[in-house]
Specification:
By secondary structure, the chain is an all-alpha fold. The chain has a domain of about 120 residues. It contains 11 helices and no strands. About 5% of the residues have low confidence.
Length: about 220
């Protein structure tokens, strides 16, 4: 694989980082035995993203991967720890070389698929949304695993799980736009824009950003 292709992979990885934050604060669905441990790992992960020094971030992320892997092993029937581990790996891809980034994304993909197999509705279908976005954002074979048909299938499943979700509607609308299906995209983008954001929701800032992206996309169509 030449340097140009590897750089293409890294560019796509960086574009995926915003999507990772669909996965923040998922522990409300965890069993009580996991809650404290997962909450601590999740908080450390969110704080670490604010650190600018790449070597320091890398070391902390590696420890967090080890910590969440222990939780995954202890609670194999729970989907949410798998989702959190995939989120940490995707964030690590931001700092990694192109080749390593691709490996991290592939591992995250496998974790998301496993989480979906356990409970597709976990965290309001966030694994479905994230996996759908991965499929249409990463390059296709032979570089990576990008596949628009798979992307649409997962995004439609996410809409079944959370039809009134801002994220599920926005990302399916974005997907349709990238496929040149502008008229179909408009209804999903409008729906995402018009869903009320609950200010008590810990994901409210993320939802507002998604709505702003929907607003910009619609403005660009007019």
């Amino acid at each position: 694989m030449n340097c140009k292709l590897l750089n293409t992979i890294l560019l796509h990885m960086k574009k995926l980082i915003f999507v990772v934050f669909l996965l923040l604060f998922t522990q409300s669905a965890f069993s009580g035995a996991m809650d404290e441990r997962v909450s601590e790992i999740e908080g450390s992960w969110a704080d670490t993203r604010e650190i600018e020094a790449v070597p320091e971030r890398k070391n902390i992320f590696l420890q967090l991967v080890n910590d969440i892997t222990e939780v995954v092993t202890e609670f194999p029937s729970q989907a949410e720890p798998l989702i959190l581990k995939s989120a940490i790996l995707l964030t690590m891809a931001e700092d990694a070389s192109s080749f390593v980034a691709l490996g991290l994304v592939k591992e995250a993909k496998s974790l998301l698929q496993k989480a979906i197999g356990i409970n597709p509705a976990a965290s309001k279908g966030s694994a479905l949304v994230t996996l759908g976005v991965l499929y249409y954002k990463v390059p296709s074979w032979p570089i990576a695993f990008g596949d628009n048909d798979e992307a649409e299938a997962y995004l439609l499943k996410a809409l079944e799980v959370d039809p009134e979700g801002i994220g599920s509607n926005y990302y399916y609308g974005e997907f349709l736009l990238e496929q040149g299906k502008k008229e179909q995209a408009v209804s999903f983008l409008n729906k995402a824009l018009n869903i009320r954001v609950n200010p008590k929701d810990r994901k409210s800032k993320i939802r507002i950003k998604e709505q702003e992206k929907a607003r910009v996309a619609l403005a660009n169509l007019s």
